[in-house]
Amino acid sequence: MYGLVNKAVEDLVVSNHGEEVWDRIRGQAGATDAAFISMDPYPDELTFRLVGAASEILETPVPDLLHAFGRHWMLYTAREGYADLLDASGSSFFEFVANLDGLHTRLSLAFPELRPPSFVCQQVDDRTARLEYFSERAGLQPMVVGLLQGLGERFGLRIEVELVEARGETDDCDVFEVRIV
Ligand code: HEM
Question: Residue 144 burial (CB < 10 Å; 0-12/13-18/19+)?
Fold first, then answer.
């Protein structure tokens, strides 16, 4: 994944636990470069190793870290120059969710090797939608939950997300029910 993602992991750890803890995590994950470059692509394995090492050193389960990371991502990207894009991606929570593929498509111009997820949102009623999440990467469902909750916060909303159909061995789609509480 792009360095922007690894830098957001670093930012989450450093802001909660300090530089020294991050250095230990980085060392254990074998991240030898002095610093990540936001616009450079890195192997997914590196990101997963960082999260695995953080889980061990912080004694926190990986899904909890991914959830926290999803929430943090919304704040981090707004701060790192994507605030206008976020503002332009929807004037309501569900409008934004329906635009997620468009948002990542726009980002592909700046990140040509982006391998983004894809989302299909079907509105059930005013406050509820069924959201299909397609990804070539397994295990990131808790991050999606955190992202949706962080997105809700941008609109002053509390969001409940329930995984209603988990992807299997052979398909790449999870289905969530997403509700404004
Ligand atoms: C301006 C805000 C955003 C930026 C800059 C951004 C950018 C990115 C980048 C760089 C990646 C890594 C993919 C790669 O390197 O190949 C990524 C992945 C991802 N993005 Fe976004 N994104 C944004 C907003 C969102 C939002 C709001 C959501 C969902 C609510 C979302 C869902 C995801 C997920 C789930 C992944 C993990 C990859 C996967 O599932 O396979 N992103 N995004």
Answer: buried
Residue 118: DSSP 8-state: E
SS3 132: strand
Residue range 69-180 forms a domain whose CATH class is: alpha beta
Stated pTM of the model? 0.96
Residue 180 pLDDT class (50, 70, 90 cuts): very high
DSSP assigned state of 172: -
| 8 A C-beta contact, residue 166 and residue 141 | yes
Residue 37: pLDDT band (50, 70, 90) is very high
Ligand 1 touching residue 69 (CB < 6 A): no
Q: Residue ranges of the domains in the chain?
A: 3-60, 69-180
Distance from the CA of 104 to the center of ligand 1, in angstroms? Answer: 7
The distance between the two most distant Cα atoms of the chain, rounded to a whole number of Å, is 49
Any ligand 1 atom below 6 A from CB of 52: no
pLDDT beyond 90 at 32: no
Q: Is 140 in the pocket of ligand 1 (CB under 6 A)?
A: yes
Q: DSSP state, 79?
A: I
